[in-house]
Amino acid sequence: MNENQSFDEKLMQAAGALETEIAPERDLWPDIESAIARPPRRRWNIVLAQAAAVLLLIGASSGLTYLAMNARTPSATPPADNTALHYEQASFGDQYMLGPDYEDARSRLKGQLDEHLQRMSPEARVDVEKNLEAIRAAIEEISRALAYDPDNALLQELLLSTYREELSLMMKVDSVANVVMTRTDI
Amino acid sequence: MATTATGSDPVVAVTEQGLADEIGWVERARQADTSAFESLYRLHVDKVYGLCLRMTGNVSEAEDCTQEAFIQAWTKLSKFRGDSAFSTWLHRIAVNSVLGRMRKSRREQDRIQAVTDISPAPETMVDTGNFEDLQNAVDELPQGARHVFVLHAVYGYSHDETSDMLGIAAGTSKAQLHRAKRLLAQQLKKSGYES
Questions:
Q1: What is the ipTM of this complex?
Q2: Contact call for B46 and A22, based on CB within 8 A
Q3: Residues B129 and B98 in one domain
Q4: Do B107 and B137 share a domain, yes or no?
């Protein structure tokens, strides 16, 4: 090496001289061969399994959230306008459109969500945000699966259930926030 | 394996006969001929594994990434158009495999090391250099700097190719290389390298 070469040049030369071919310590082919010999699984089966797993998780964690939040507001007054909130079943056809009432309720609750979240304890807020994130990820996942298999009734049902989960969680947040705001026993 | 570098592609190093064989194996593998695919595996496994090992710094993960890369290559063979060398296409898949695993794995976080990114690189060195510990120093680089250094400095990919493979901007690739050099200078200095 030239004495006047910069460190960078020498480093790059040394790096370029490193071995680029390294033999694995064991033969990896048998595992690869058995993997490629298996018949490919249908994509929607995988997605369906993932979606079902996500929904189970969401169900469990939203239940816990609900219990935790209710425990923090023992003298809760029933929310004022929850009963007025109706939503229609999403219409499943070529396009997976939600009914207008459902969309209205969802938009209204989404609009109020940030404000309500600010009033929650940090732990409850993190919990709710995690649940919502999981639900929205599930909605995206199921929608992608439906793009592959548009007539799959089970996937359609899963999508609807997931939207219900989202709405339900937002309603719980809304009702708890209203209760906190209207308490008169403090 | 007799090799002759082609010049235009930094990682392609096969004889003309080898290249003809490779094209034939690719064609046969596309027809679901696993023995042809095994020939492709035997031809390329050392480079793919080497790349995975240098990028992950972990034997077990490198083995997993190599297997995943070849399985992905098998399923995507119909998409290989021959616009680039088969080895380059395969390397892209291997890099994606590494990146995918790294994203999923939290093990990378355990690799955090105490090197601080502050001292400038030495300008010159007076002896013949001491780069025996270079591989270890590369293994200890943070993920982003290590990936760029391995692809650009070890495997000879340009910054454009490196950034394309890693899904980053070319400017980021250059910045990461600069960072890698500075960190390596520090590491090598600790290991006894004298400027």
A1: 0.75
A2: yes
A3: no
A4: no
The answer to whether the Cβ–Cβ distance between B155 and A20 falls below 8 Å is: yes
Shared domain check, B181 and B102: no
Q: At what angle do helices B34-56 and A29-37 cross, to 10 degrees?
A: 120
pLDDT per residue over B79-125, tens digit each? 888 888 899 999 999 999 999 888 776 554 555 443 334 344 444 43
Query: Which positions in chain A touch B134 (Cβ < 8 Å)?
Result: 11, 14-15, 18
Q: Do B45 and A16 touch (CB under 8 A)?
A: no
Q: What domain range includes position B173?
A: 123-195
**Neighbouring C-beta atoms of residue B74, cutoff 10 Å:** 20
- Cα A45 to chain centroid distance, Å, stands at 19
What's the domain count of chain B?
A: 2
CB contact under 8 A, A33 and B71: no
Quote the tokens at residue B99: 């990146």
B76 touches chain A (CB under 8 A): no
DSSP-assigned letter for residue B133: T
Query: CB neighbours of B108 closer than 8 A, spacing ≥ 6?
Result: B102, B143
**Cβ of A24 and B11 within 8 Å?**
no
> Given A14, A18, A36, which is nearest B129 (Cβ)?
A14
Instruction: Write the DSSP string, A117-151.
Output: HHHS-HHHHHHHHHHHHHHHHHHHHHHHHHHH-TT
Residue B5, helix vs strand vs coil: strand
B11 at the A interface (CB within 8 A)? yes
For A145, other C-beta atoms within 10 Å of its C-beta total: 23
CATH number at residue B98: 1.10.1740.10
**Residue in B with minimal Cα distance to A14:** B131
Report CB contact under 8 Å: B49, A29: no
pLDDT tens digits, B61-75: 999 999 999 999 999
Question: What are all long-range contacts of A141-146, with beta carbons under 8 Å and residues at least 24 apart?
Answer: A141/A47, A141/A50, A141/A51, A141/A54, A142/A47, A142/A51, A143/A96, A144/A47, A145/A43, A145/A44, A145/A47, A145/A48, A145/A51, A146/A96
pTM score above 0.80: no
